[in-house]
Amino acid sequence: MVKRKSLIVYFRNPKALKKIADVTEVTYYTKKKKYAVVYVNEDQVEAVTKRLQEISLVRKIEESLFETEGYQLEL
Questions:
Q1: How many CA atoms lie within 13 A of 58 on its CB side?
Q2: What are the angstrom distances between the C-alpha of 63 and each of 9, 75?
Q3: Model's pTM, two decimal places?
Q4: 11-62 pLDDT, tens per residue?
Q5: d(CA 42, CA 34)
Q6: How far apart are CA 8 and CA 36, in angstroms?
Q7: In the list 24, 31, 42, 54, which could disulfide-bond 3, CB 3.0-4.6 Å?
Q8: In what order do the strands lie in the sheet with 35-41?
């Protein structure tokens, strides 16, 4: 199974969504709060982050903390 990471991409303008979608698939977005959630393969995180940072309308990119060990659910 391929491990995936979620990235939170903050943008300045909703027009950035189209450019973000050209780089990777957008799973969730909100125009009002100006952020999008994208999932990428763990081995491609650095490459996708670099390409997203090159978009002028992207303000900030963060890795989601939900997948870290402290947030894992134990069943």
A1: 22
A2: 9, 24
A3: 0.83
A4: 999 999 999 999 999 999 999 999 999 999 999 999 999 999 999 999 999 9
A5: 24
A6: 6
A7: 42
A8: 26-30, 35-41, 4-11, 58-63
